[in-house]
Design a protein that fits this description.
Elements: E1 31-38, E2 41-47, H1 53-64, E3 73-77, E4 81-84, E5 113-116, E6 128-131, H2 134-137, E7 145-151, H3 153-160, E8 176-184
Antiparallel strand pairs: 1-2, 1-8, 2-7, 3-4, 4-6, 5-6, 5-7
C-alpha cells in the first residue's frame, strides 16, 4: 500500500503531518460511521459522504492514521460547541494542508451535527466541532456539515458542561482517546 494511504482496517501507525490533501480513500456509495472514544464516554457518528464527500474522506483518512488519538477538545462552550482536532491543542494547528469547503444549505445544523472548523473560506484541515446547543444550531452555513452523532449525544452534552478557563479551554483535559471508522455497504 502507498505510504500516503492508510490501511482501511486501522492498522497503520499514527501519523500527524501530511504534505498535501488526502487522496480519495472512501467510496461515497458506502456508509461510514466513526466511533469516537473520549475520556468522558463514547459517541457514534454517522458520516455523510453524499453531502460532503471530500470532508468525510478527510476525516476518515485522518482517523485511519490515528491522527485524532490523544488530542483534546481544546474549545468547549456550553450551549454552543465542543471543538477538537488540533494537534497542538491551541486551536491553531492542523495536518499540514487545507482543503475547500462543502457548505450546507442554511438551517441544516442541529444538535449533534459534526462540522468542520475553519479560519475562513476554504481553510479546512483537521479541526472539527460537535454542535451542542442553540447557539451552534444558529450558525451561518459557513462550515462543512459532514456527520451527526447518532449515539452518545449525552457525552457531547456532558463535555460542554465541564469547567473552562477564559479561553474556553477545559480546566481538565477532555481527551479523544481514539476514532475508529466502520465502513459498510
Amino acid at each position: 500500500m502507498s505510504d500516503l494511504i492508510p490501511e482501511a482496517d486501522g492498522s497503520s501507525e499514527r501519523r500527524t503531518n501530511f504534505p498535501a490533501s488526502p487522496p480519495m480513500v472512501i467510496d461515497p456509495t458506502k456508509t461510514y460511521t466513526a466511533e469516537m472514544v473520549t475520556s468522558m464516554g463514547s459517541m457514534t457518528i454517522h458520516l455523510d459522504p453524499i453531502a460532503a464527500p471530500q470532508t468525510v474522506n478527510n476525516f476518515v483518512y485522518l482517523a485511519r492514521w490515528h491522527y485524532f488519538d490523544g488530542l483534546i477538545f481544546h474549545r468547549v462552550i456550553n450551549g454552543f460547541v465542543i471543538q477538537g482536532g488540533c494537534p497542538e491543542g491551541s486551536g491553531r494547528g492542523g495536518p499540514g494542508y487545507r482543503f475547500d469547503d462543502e457548505l450546507p444549505k442554511p438551517g441544516r445544523y442541529e444538535l449533534g451535527s459534526l462540522v468542520m472548523a475553519n479560519a475562513g473560506p476554504d481553510t479546512n484541515g483537521s479541526q472539527f466541532f460537535v454542535i451542542t446547543g442553540p447557539n451552534g444550531v444558529g450558525l451561518p452555513p459557513s462550515y462543512a456539515l459532514f456527520g451527526k452523532v447518532i449515539k452518545g449525544v449525552e457525552v457531547a452534552t456532558t463535555i460542554q458542561e465541564v469547567p473552562t478557563n477564559g479561553s474556553d479551554r477545559p480546566d481538565t483535559d477532555v481527551v479523544i482517546e481514539s476514532v475508529a471508522i466502520k465502513e459498510t455497504d
